[in-house]
UniProtKB/TrEMBL annotation:
Transmembrane segments: none annotated. The keyword Phosphoprotein does not apply. InterPro entries: NA-bd_OB-fold, Ribosomal_uS17, Ribosomal_uS17_bact/chlr, Ribosomal_uS17_CS. This is Small ribosomal subunit protein uS17.
Length: 87
């Protein structure tokens, strides 16, 4: 039987908003969508819980996350790299 989910995994960039958990961070991803009626572009935010194996991420870091198998009830992403450290 052929695997249905052989597509590319989601890769997202976002900002770490919480690092209070052990080996987990909350990443806020920003995207722009166009309003259906007014055609104006609006910012939308979504928060993902991501696995941070080495506890390297801090609040304010810009990170890249990738989709993975379910690691817990809410975690479906892993931190692949920290693109920009917080000051």
């Amino acid at each position: 039987m052929e695997n249905m989910h052989k597509g590319k995994k989601k890769e997202l960039k976002g900002l770490v908003t919480s690092d209070k958990m052990d080996k987990s961070v909350v990443v806020q991803v920003e995207r722009y969508i166009q309003h259906k009626m007014y055609k104006k572009y609006i910012k939308q935010y979504k928060r993902y819980q991501a696995h941070d194996e080495k506890n390297e991420c801090r609040i304010g870091d810009e990170v890249q996350i990738i989709e993975t198998r379910p690691l817990s009830k809410l975690k479906r992403f892993r931190v692949t790299q920290i693109t920009k450290k917080a000051v």
